[in-house]
Amino acid sequence: MTASNSMEQMLAMFVSLLVVLAVAIGLAWLWKRLMPSSLLGPSGMDVVASRHVGTKERLLLVKVGERYLLLGVTAHAINTLAEFSAEQLPDALQQIQQPSTPPNWLSWRSKQ
Q1: In whole angstroms, what is the distance from residue 110 CA to residue 15 CA?
Q2: To which H or E segment does residue 79 belong?
Q3: How confident is the model at residue 1 (pLDDT cuts 50, 70, 90)?
């Protein structure tokens, strides 16, 4: 076995290792990004409504247990603007439905 042949094998093994690591990282990112939160387990918090008020600012109405929090979210901070019980919610917000169940990612299989 020559030195150049050995170097070629080492380089091929290193490139293969990089490819395997890149695929593993990519699959982990996709899993985290695409899997519905219901499969990850109940969190006890639900985002009931969201409204963008700027390029990086928004208002969130979050249900935590039996309480509702109105949060102001910016790129640098999250501030609690108001806290409500279900009875204290303004009438317009009472009409908001809870988030629907996440889409069934495997529904295409039942159509075949």
Answers
A1: 40
A2: strand 78-85
A3: low
